[in-house]
Amino acid sequence: MSTATDLAKTSTKAGFNYLWGLVISTIISSLGTIYIADVMGAEVYGLYGMAFVVPNMIMVFRDWGVNSAMVRYTAKYRAEKREAEIKSIFFVGILFEIIVGLGLSLLSFFLSGYIVTNMYGELSPENAVQLVSLIQIVSFSILAGGLISAATAVFTGMEKTIYYSVMLICQCVVKTLLIVGLFVAGFGVSGATVGFTFSSIIAGVVGMVFVLLLYRKMPKDPLYKLNIKFYLKKMLKYSIPLSIAAIVAGFLAQFYGFILPRFYGNNIDVIGNYNLAGTFVVLISFFSLPITNMLFPAFSKLDIKKDKIAFKNVFQLSVKYSALLVIPVTFIVMCLSSQAVTTLFGDKYSLTPLFLMLSAVNFLFAAAGSLSTGNILNSQGQTKLNLKFSILTAVIGFPMGYLLIMNYGVFGLIFTSTVAPIPSFILCIIWIKKHYELSINWVSSVKILVSAAVTAVLTYLMVNSSPINGVSAQISTMVNVALTYLPLISLSLRSAAISLIIGTFFYIFVLLGVLMLTKTLSTNDIINLREMSTGLGFITKIIHLVLNSMEKIMIKFKLT
Hints:
Layout: H1 2-50, H2 53-59, H3 66-79, H4 83-119, H5 125-139, H6 141-157, H7 161-217, H8 228-264, H9 268-300, H10 308-335, H11 337-345, H12 352-359, H13 373-379, H14 383-408, H15 410-419, H16 422-436, H17 442-463, H18 466-482, H19 487-492, H20 495-517, H21 523-532, H22 538-556
Helix pairs in contact: 1-7, 1-9, 1-10, 2-4, 2-8, 3-4, 3-6, 3-8, 3-9, 4-5, 4-6, 4-8, 5-7, 6-7, 8-14, 9-10, 9-12, 9-13, 10-17, 11-12, 11-20, 13-16, 14-15, 14-16, 17-20, 18-20, 21-22
């Protein structure tokens, strides 16, 4: 258990550094996104989102799983004290990303006209011409994305995620300034696209500078020589099945996004609503992505054959505490989606709250270990098995997606994205149970789901009740009067915003009470969480204050 706690503590600190970068960068980026979405309107914003579909579809062929191999071997070699070999992993991985990324960027650029002409038949001629130029601009983000991904793999494997956060914040600052500045300057949607692409290039360069700093700090071995062929072969042997799985999964997602405008090109406003819902889903990704990214190197440090007990403890802790974080966030986003969208955009995106609620369902599978199972397979070299599961999902997803999206549009896309991976996920859980003897604490997972769901229902009923709406309207009116000379601020502080704030605090306090009453959290969990959160700076004091208060209440009322 001590090994599990040590790994959890290290991963928590790295995950926190990952988290604050995501939060700050997304807040900065959201300023630009909110402004652009508000000014463009649903139709133009839908066209802007369509510009990324083709480059993103081509981008899935860029990685070949090399970044995952970089994370695995970096973490593994660090645990085995083989630092000299990590330099080779860095060099080979980055070189691979540059060569493949450049080739695919040029491919996307030159194929843009053909793709738009032959595959977006329902677009108007004016929109089609503009979409070609937008795709050509975005094409160069494929190479930039390769540099960013390679740098991220290095930072994750080395557990130096603070560099990732700085890189991400640089990207979002430049992106926000450029997309807003160029749009206001009269360059329109083309200017916004240029801002996105150029900011990606800047982030890639910043990431490479940090990688170079880490590279120079690593110990030198005069007897060790770089062998590109050996390490490339080693990495590809591990990553090719994983890369095919990633290509299948990525292509499936892009296929959904591609056929949607093909059948509903005349309903770009609906696509714009769906694209905006995707930006709100990022709120949940704040918490799921750090967990997913840091569990991979944590599992890679362990060998299931040699560290069976530690592996079991790490697995169960990862499932319970990731669910304890992600599930409540998912439900609060779902129950307050209408207030959040209305606060920022008024009635311009009326379908976005519904799309957001439905899209968030995917994250509820964290209670069954969705954030851990894939990392377990990859960390132990079971990449071929991961490939089989991805193929199964694709076999189900392609025909289901085509039929449902053709007939039901966005609703069919969301349903397919949620349902198609379920059979593979169930088989993965069964395989892990059979071969590794790892099991999920289902009682704990169900308690977390029920606690968060009950709290969400109570919150939804509360914020939509007549008394709360009346209070929110009165507060909004008083604020608007007080801020007469600041119209932009007064506009945002409408009644929906007040309801959002009230609902958020209500949800948090009620959830903590429900978790204690249902004994979903025990005093042992409090101790583990307190230990894991040590070393997070001033955040540690806040977390410990909450945990200590909960512990006192649990002891006093015998809820342990």
